[in-house]
């Protein structure tokens, strides 16, 4: 059986790795994004001619900003769309946005037309999804799903409950998902595969026990 963890376990393991073991959160974020970037560029099913990166205000959005920066510094055509209240952005998100702005990575309005993109990266919500998706977020998720672009999700398709594998209101329908450290238990439910698409698991230095046990 594939090893999988609950959303709460995922948050606890992140916290333990950062606060107790001492790997800085920005190091974990960089490793996560490097894994996701490599999953994307080596995936023949993704056309990276023109990529839009959807960025939420938490650390899932922080991962997305690093993916955007890696694509940009490797000469891919990439734009960022920030979603949500910048005043509530996480510390690591703020740090990564500053780096993206140093490079002048193009930013577009999330309410703009998504029809010109070949790939959309979903960095709206990860393990921090706390309630039903509504309003602006719902509209953006539905618009991304309706676009012709293939979607690559970061950690878990936004809107999908990682424990049940069911959408909370609405959820991204990804062609592929790079999940961080371990699959989330909901992603082992066959009904979630309509949302996750092909799953990649990226090791970023977070282990739930002795590494040799996993
Ligand atoms: N430093 C870390 O702890 C690491 C975190 N990682 C990434 O960080 C993610 C978790 O980040 P966060 O805990 O910041 O959470 P998220 O980025 O998943 O989302 C948090 C934000 O979304 C808001 N939110 C939740 N549900 C909502 C809803 N239905 N409608 C509107 N807003 C809603 C929350 O209030 C919060 O502002 C992981 O999925 C992973 O992608 C990775 O970078 C690995 C290391
Ligand atoms: K996501």
TrEMBL record:
<dbReference type="InterPro" id="IPR004443">
    <property type="entry name" value="YjeF_N_dom"/>
</dbReference>
<keyword id="KW-0547">Nucleotide-binding</keyword>
<feature type="binding site">
    <location>
        <position position="122"/>
    </location>
    <ligand>
        <name>K(+)</name>
    </ligand>
</feature>
<comment type="similarity">
    <text>Belongs to the NnrE/AIBP family.</text>
</comment>
<feature type="binding site">
    <location>
        <position position="60"/>
    </location>
    <ligand>
        <name>K(+)</name>
    </ligand>
</feature>
<feature type="binding site">
    <location>
        <begin position="126"/>
        <end position="132"/>
    </location>
    <ligand>
        <name>(6S)-NADPHX</name>
    </ligand>
</feature>
<keyword id="KW-0479">Metal-binding</keyword>
<dbReference type="GO" id="GO:0046872">
    <property type="term" value="F:metal ion binding"/>
</dbReference>
<dbReference type="GO" id="GO:0052856">
    <property type="term" value="F:NAD(P)HX epimerase activity"/>
</dbReference>
<comment type="function">
    <text>Catalyzes the epimerization of the S- and R-forms of NAD(P)HX, a damaged form of NAD(P)H that is a result of enzymatic or heat-dependent hydration. This is a prerequisite for the S-specific NAD(P)H-hydrate dehydratase to allow the repair of both epimers of NAD(P)HX.</text>
</comment>
<feature type="binding site">
    <location>
        <position position="155"/>
    </location>
    <ligand>
        <name>(6S)-NADPHX</name>
    </ligand>
</feature>
<protein>
    <recommendedName>
        <fullName>NAD(P)H-hydrate epimerase</fullName>
        <ecNumber>5.1.99.6</ecNumber>
    </recommendedName>
</protein>
<dbReference type="GO" id="GO:0000166">
    <property type="term" value="F:nucleotide binding"/>
</dbReference>
<keyword id="KW-0630">Potassium</keyword>
<keyword id="KW-0413">Isomerase</keyword>
<feature type="binding site">
    <location>
        <position position="137"/>
    </location>
    <ligand>
        <name>(6S)-NADPHX</name>
    </ligand>
</feature>
<feature type="binding site">
    <location>
        <position position="158"/>
    </location>
    <ligand>
        <name>K(+)</name>
    </ligand>
</feature>
<feature type="binding site">
    <location>
        <begin position="59"/>
        <end position="63"/>
    </location>
    <ligand>
        <name>(6S)-NADPHX</name>
    </ligand>
</feature>
<feature type="domain" description="YjeF N-terminal">
    <location>
        <begin position="10"/>
        <end position="212"/>
    </location>
</feature>
<keyword id="KW-0520">NAD</keyword>
<dbReference type="InterPro" id="IPR036652">
    <property type="entry name" value="YjeF_N_dom_sf"/>
</dbReference>
<keyword id="KW-0521">NADP</keyword>
<dbReference type="Pfam" id="PF03853">
    <property type="entry name" value="YjeF_N"/>
</dbReference>
């Amino acid at each position: 059986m594939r090893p999988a963890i609950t959303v709460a376990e995922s948050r606890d393991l992140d916290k333990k790795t950062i606060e107790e073991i001492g790997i800085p959160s920005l190091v974990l974020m960089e490793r996560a994004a490097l894994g996701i970037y490599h999953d994307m560029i080596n995936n023949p099913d993704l056309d990276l001619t023109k990529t839009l990166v959807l960025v939420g205000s938490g650390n899932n959005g922080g991962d997305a900003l690093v993916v955007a920066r890696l694509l940009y510094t490797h000469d891919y055509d990439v734009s960022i769309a920030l979603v949500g209240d910048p005043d509530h952005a996480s510390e690591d998100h703020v740090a990564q946005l500053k780096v993206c702005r140093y490079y002048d990575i193009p930013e577009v309005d999330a309410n703009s037309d998504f029809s010109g993109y070949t790939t959309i990266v979903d960095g709206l919500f990860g393990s921090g999804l706390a309630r039903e998706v509504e309003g602006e977020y719902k509209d953006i998720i539905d618009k991304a799903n309706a676009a012709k672009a293939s979607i690559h999700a970061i950690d878990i398709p936004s809107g999908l409950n990682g424990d049940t594998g069911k959408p909370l209101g609405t959820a991204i329908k990804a062609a592929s998902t790079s999940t961080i450290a371990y699959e989330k238990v909901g992603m082992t439910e066959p009904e979630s595969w309509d949302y996750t698409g092909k799953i990649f698991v990226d090791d970023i230095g977070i282990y739930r026990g002795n590494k040799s046990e996993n």
